[in-house]
Amino acid sequence: MRILFLGDLVGRSGRDAAGAALPSLRQRLGIELIVVNAENASHGFGLAPEMARALFAAGADAITLGNHAWDRKELIPYVAQEPRVIRPLNFPPGTPGAGSLVVSLADGRRALVVNAMGRLFMDALDCPFRGTAVELSRYRLGGTVAAIVIDFHGEATSEKAAFAHSFDGQASLIVGTHTHVPTADHQVLPGGTAFQSDVGMCGDYDSVIGMAKEGAATRFWKKMPGERLQPAEGEATICGLFVETDDATGLARRIEPVRLGGRLSQTMPAV
Ligand SMILES: [Fe+2]
Ligand SMILES: [Fe+2]
After folding, report:
1. Cβ distance 26 to 55 under 8 Å?
2. Angle formed by the axes of helices 157-166 and 128-136, nearest 10°
3. Are 47 and 41 within 8 A, CB to CB?
4. Annotated active-site positions, please?
5. What's the Rg (C-alpha) of the chain?
6. Ligand nearest to the CA of 152
7. DSSP 3-state of 181
8. pLDDT, tens digit, for every residue of 92-121?
9. From the CA of 69, which ligand is nearest?
10. pTM of this prediction?
11. How far is the CA of 174 from the centre of ligand 2 (A)?
12. d(CA 104, CA 259)
């Protein structure tokens, strides 16, 4: 299975670039499953239902979230009736929506998509390790599902790496989100799980992690609350991952970064 994962869409710049590129990326790379983290799509904070609908129309199969899940309140009732938008599975019991989703491809193959959130330098939540172990125990990779994609939304690289090694061999892809900067550690782990500790954002990189640099810098100079951060509006770099799996095992054969447009160095997998 060919999978495309795009990191946190930030504001209009990231949202529009991703929406415009998804149909052509799907075709060019022969993508069969598209997962997008959209926790910052709405002006940097949250996701509005109409933006989710636009991403689905552009070809996204599942949308993941993170600590900004509920910044747009309209999303709370929306996730209760739209299973393709998932929020971290380790939110408190009773939280609307679900932490996972099974996507059925047109040819009948199924893929499990999971969203979990780290706890190091993040909000206190239930244990993402134990929660994910319980979730994965319900499926058999290469059996009941052909692929498993886990978006681990976290601040600390150590926690992300520990999480990935803990589930190496049990997922097709474990990809970090939240820091908005792509790391260079993308690899297929020894057990066959593709991993990158952070995929980066889809947004303007002439910024402080997607937000306008002047206002963001002021916050560090003056220890006083400033104006609300605004998303940077220059051309976005689309940052994502291309992963190819073996349907028989569900494990990864290759993992390649995708960086398209904007300021970062460009890279596109050869297929
Ligand atoms: Fe984010
Ligand atoms: Fe985040």
Report:
1. no
2. 30
3. yes
4. 68
5. 17
6. 2
7. coil
8. 999 999 999 999 999 999 999 999 999 999
9. 2
10. 0.98
11. 16
12. 27
